[in-house]
C-alpha cells in the first residue's frame, strides 16, 4: 500500500492523507482546510513540496476515485474541505464518531454562512479584473447545499469497535481526548497474505482536561502518523484549570472592579471554560460575577456536549449528576443577537466576556477587544495558540497600538496568557503516545501537523528515546508501506 501526505506536512493545518491499497481501494484520512500562507523554501528544503501527479481540480487527485473518508475529529483544519470533496465528485461515505458528526455539522454550516457573506461582498464590485478573481474565488467556496450533501453521507460509529471497510480492511476509532468525539484511527489491512497496520493520531489531547476523557493507548502498529504541534515544548502552566482561572478572576474582577475578556474558540475551548467557571461558582463560592458567552456556535456546540454526557470524563459526569447542568450557572448568559453582543459594552459592573475567535481574528471578539483595549481596568486573557500576524499574536508580542477594523487603538488593557485550556498534548504527552509502540517492531513514524522546527526537535527527542525510524514528509510526498 502507498501513503501520500497531502496536507499538514511541515505545517499545522490542512490535515489530509491518502492511503492507496494494492487493489486500488483508496482511503482518505481527514480533509481539512489549509489556513496557512505558503512559505518560502529554506536552504534545507524544509518547505519544498514534492509534486504528485497533476490534476486540475481543487484536490491533487480525482475526487471520484476515493472510496471512503475517515475523519479524526470536527475541527475545520481536519474537516473543512469535505463539502468541496463532494462538489468535485466524491460519492462515498464519511466514517467518524457520533459527536464528530454533530460538531462537524455545526462548524461546516458556520463556514458556509461566512462563505455566503464573502460572495455577497464580492458581488458588489463592478470592476472587470476583480470580477475574474471573484469568479475563481467563488469556485472554491462551498455553501449550505454542499454542507447538507456532505452530512447526509456521514456514517457514525462507536469507539473501540472494529468496523469493516471492505474485504481485508477494518478500522477502529480510539478516544484521543482533544475534543469531544476526537479519535486516533487504526487501520488494519490484509494484502498478499501479509497483515499491515497503521495509526493516524489525529490531534492528541492531554490528561485531566476539563470534560474530556484522557487519550487512550493505541495497540501495536507497523506505521504511526503522529501530530507534533507541541513537539518542541512543554505546557507552561502547571496549575489546574480551576486554580489558574480562579487566580485570574480574583485579580481582574474581584480585587479591582475590572472586566475580563477571553477570546476563545467556540467548539471545545468555550465548553471547557464554561464548565470550569461553573465549578468555581458552585464549589468555591466565588462572587456571582456576570459571565457572557458571545458566540451562537458555542451555544450550539454546548448542546451537543450535553447530548453526549456519557462520552465525557467521570468527573464531568458526576458533576452533571449532582448539579443537573454543565454550563448554566448563576449570572450566566448566552448572547444570541449581535445587538445583545454590542449592548454588553454598556454593562457597568465587573464581568467576564467569552467570545470567538481564540486568535482575536474575525468574529464578535474583535468588537469586545476594541471596546476594552484602551481601558486599564480591563484584562484580555489569551488561552491558546495565536498564529503569527493575528491580533492575538500582536497582543502577546507587546504591540502598543492595534488597528481593528480600520481604527487605531492604544493598548492600555492588561494582557495575560495561560495554556491550561490548550487541547493539545505537549512534548511529554506526545512521547507517552509514541511510547506505547515498540521501537523494535514499529517500522516508521511520520511526523505531521506541526511547524517544521517542532517536528525536527521532536524527531531528535524520539531518536534519544530509541526511535530512529522517524520521517518528516513533504507535502505531496508518497511512501510505499
UniProtKB/TrEMBL annotation:
Signal peptide start-end: none
Domain Metallo-beta-lactamase positions: 13-265
Pfam families in alphabetical order: Beta-Casp, Lactamase_B, RMMBL
Superkingdom of this protein's organism: Bacteria
Span of domain Beta-Casp: 270-395
Keyword Hydrolase: yes
Any one GO molecular function term: hydrolase activity
Alphabetical keyword list: Hydrolase
Protein name: MBL fold metallo-hydrolase
Organism: Spirosoma terrae
Amino acid at each position: 500500500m502507498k501513503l501520500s501526505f497531502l496536507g499538514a506536512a511541515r505545517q499545522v493545518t490542512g490535515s489530509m492523507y491518502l492511503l492507496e491499497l494494492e487493489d486500488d481501494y483508496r482511503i482518505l484520512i481527514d480533509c481539512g482546510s489549509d489556513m496557512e500562507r505558503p512559505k518560502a523554501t529554506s536552504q534545507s528544503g524544509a518547505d519544498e513540496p514534492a509534486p504528485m501527479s497533476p490534476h486540475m481540480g481543487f484536490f491533487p487527485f480525482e475526487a471520484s476515485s476515493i472510496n471512503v473518508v475517515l475523519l479524526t475529529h470536527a475541527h475545520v483544519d481536519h474537516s473543512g474541505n469535505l463539502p468541496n470533496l463532494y462538489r468535485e465528485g466524491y460519492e462515498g461515505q464519511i466514517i467518524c464518531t457520533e459527536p464528530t458528526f454533530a460538531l462537524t455539522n455545526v462548524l461546516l454550516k458556520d463556514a458556509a454562512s461566512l462563505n455566503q457573506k464573502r460572495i455577497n461582498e464580492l458581488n458588489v464590485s463592478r470592476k472587470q479584473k476583480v470580477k475574474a478573481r471573484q469568479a475563481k474565488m467563488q469556485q472554491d467556496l462551498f455553501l449550505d447545499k454542499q454542507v447538507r450533501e456532505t452530512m447526509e453521507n456521514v456514517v457514525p460509529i462507536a469507539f473501540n469497535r472494529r468496523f469493516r471497510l471492505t474485504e481485508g480492511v477494518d478500522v477502529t476509532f480510539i478516544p484521543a481526548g482533544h475534543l469531544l468525539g476526537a479519535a486516533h484511527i487504526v487501520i488494519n489491512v490484509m494484502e498478499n497474505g501479509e497483515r499491515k497496520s497503521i495509526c493516524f493520531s489525529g490531534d492528541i489531547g492531554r490528561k485531566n482536561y476539563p470534560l474530556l476523557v484522557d487519550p487512550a493507548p493505541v495497540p501495536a502498529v507497523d506505521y504511526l502518523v503522529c501530530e507534533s504541534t507541541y513537539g518542541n515544548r512543554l505546557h507552561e502552566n502547571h496549575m489546574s484549570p480551576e486554580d489558574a482561572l480562579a487566580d485570574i478572576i480574583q485579580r481582574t474582577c474581584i480585587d479591582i472592579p475590572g472586566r475580563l475578556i477571553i477570546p476563545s474558540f467556540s467548539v471545545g475551548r468555550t465548553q471547557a471554560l464554561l464548565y470550569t467557571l461553573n465549578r468555581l461558582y458552585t464549589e468555591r463560592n466565588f462572587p456571582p460575577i456576570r459571565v457572557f458567552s458571545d458566540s451562537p456556535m458555542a451555544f450550539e456546540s454546548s448542546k451537543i456536549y450535553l447530548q453526549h454526557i456519557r462520552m465525557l470524563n467521570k468527573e464531568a459526569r458526576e458533576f452533571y449528576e449532582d448539579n443537573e447542568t454543565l454550563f448554566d450557572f448563576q449570572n450566566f448568559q448566552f448572547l444570541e443577537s449581535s445587538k445583545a453582543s454590542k449592548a454588553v459594552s454598556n454593562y457597568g459592573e465587573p464581568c467576564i466576556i467569552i467570545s470567538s475567535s481564540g486568535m482575536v481574528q474575525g468574529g464578535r471578539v474583535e468588537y469586545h477587544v476594541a471596546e476594552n483595549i484602551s481601558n486599564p481596568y480591563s484584562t484580555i486573557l489569551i488561552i491558546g495558540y495565536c498564529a503569527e500576524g493575528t491580533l492575538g499574536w500582536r497582543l502577546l508580542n507587546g504591540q502598543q497600538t492595534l488597528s481593528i477594523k480600520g481604527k487605531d487603538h492604544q493598548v492600555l488593557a492588561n494582557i495575560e496568557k495561560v495554556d491550561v485550556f490548550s487541547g493539545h498534548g505537549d512534548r511529554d504527552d506526545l512521547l507517552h503516545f509514541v511510547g506505547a509502540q515498540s521501537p523494535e517492531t514499529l517500522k516508521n513514524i511520520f511526523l505531521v501537523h506541526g511547524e517544521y522546527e517542532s517536528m525536527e526537535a521532536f524527531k531528535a527527542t524520539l531518536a534519544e528515546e530509541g526511535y530512529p525510524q522517524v520521517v518528516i514528509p513533504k507535502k505531496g510526498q508518497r511512501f510505499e508501506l
